[in-house]
Amino acid sequence: MSDIHENPSPQEIVKSYLDVALSQAHEKPANSEQLCAEIKADLKANDAVLVAHYYTAPELQALAEQSGGFVGDSLEMARFGKQNPAQTLIVAGVKFMGETAKILSPEKNVYMPTLEATCSLDLGCPVDDFSAFCDANPERTVVVYANTSAAVKARSDWVVTSSIALDVVDYLDSQGEKILWAPDKYLGSYVAEKTGADVLLWNGSCIVHEEFKSRGIEDLKRAHPDAAVLVHPESPKPVIDLADVVGSTSQLIEATRKLTNPAFIVATDQGIFYKMQQACPDKQLLIAPTAGSGATCRSCANCPWMAMNELDSLAGLLRTLGNPETEANEIHVDSQTAQQAMKPLGRMLDFATQRKG
Ligand code: 13P
Ligand code: SF4
User: Fold this and answer.
1) Ligand in closest contact with the CA of 303
2) Does the C-beta of 74 come closer than 6 Å to ligand 1?
3) Per-residue confidence (pLDDT) for residue 32, from 0 to 100
4) 80 in Cβ contact with 100 (< 8 Å)
5) How far is the CA of 6 from the centre of ligand 1 (A)?
């Protein structure tokens, strides 16, 4: 009998991490007010700022706002961490966000409530397989989504987030460049269709956005004909095709401010409702339907890894900040990888600054 062990496929890797995330999901603790007060005091005492993504629990987003930290999309989180003078960054989000913060601010200490909070796109794009894909297509410019490991970024020419992907690929196409895109096939297809660029896709997907169903959105739209449909571009094409607005998390929140519709059908993680409610308090927010509990859906518009950022673990981290036990929560990126990854990240940040100016 053969003794050969094949490496697990990206799908198997995603599943094993997903099982861990789902088994660790907890309810909001009963003493949450006391924990929030403690966290605010400890942030101040440690010259630390909390940088949170829109998909984290509302109480974490509120804490970031109230303590002089920040809530934003993945591009804005990266920018804030770099520009803020605090020596210690606490990133409530998923691991690629912590790594990006560390690469941009190598002199700072970057911690996360748990380093097990990862992302199916990152997991589904192991660096060795990805490098082989790049090596097989040397004539292409390598553009990777921010939802990747530091090592994958280090192998790329450009990093993009969903808020800037269209503009960057459009620019590269205008320069006559052919693109190798990874890892999200839905965002990559959307960008290719919109820009007309020649894009070769990696086969990755987000387990949360992949579950939104166009049939369910059509049914909801029939019941709420005045509602605008807002879709994150990690969703499948039939869902994107129904959208009034396609955009990053920040762009979708901005749409709720600008559009006059009385209601919105939202195809992204439900954590975003905290900020959307602030942006349009008088409007109705409806979550776009997923496959539901009877089908393969195990996420149902809630990223299981974002949900691993909990008040308890954040408070525990801050209590012991700087002690040896917090080592397990600190982000480290080896300096060679960080320097390599900084090049494509820097290109994105410069591009974003020029576009604004
Ligand atoms: P944004 O860049 O739009 O915040 O998206 C990050 C993400 O992980 C979406 O699933
Ligand atoms: Fe990754 Fe999807 Fe979670 Fe975003 S929602 S962090 S893309 S798994």
Assistant:
1) 2
2) yes
3) 87
4) no
5) 32
Atom of ligand 2 nearest to the CA of 268: 5
- Within the chain, which residues score under 50 in pLDDT? 1-5, 293, 298-299
User: Which of 194, 141, 135 is closest to 170 using CA atoms?
Assistant: 194
Which residues are bridge partners to 206 per DSSP? none
In angstroms, what is the span from residue 282 Cα to ligand 1's centroid?
A: 25
For ligand 2, atom 5, which residue shows the shortest CA distance? Answer: 303
Q: Would the pTM count as exceeding 0.85?
A: yes
Pair 121, 205: CB distance under 8 Å: yes
Amino acid making up residue 29: P
Token duo for residue 132: 């082989």
Q: β-strand 141-145 against 70-72: which pairing, if any?
A: unpaired
> For position 3, what pLDDT does the model report?
36
How confident is the model over 306-331, as pLDDT tens digits? Answer: 999 999 999 999 999 988 888 889 99
Ligand 1 centroid vs 313 CA: distance in angstroms?
23
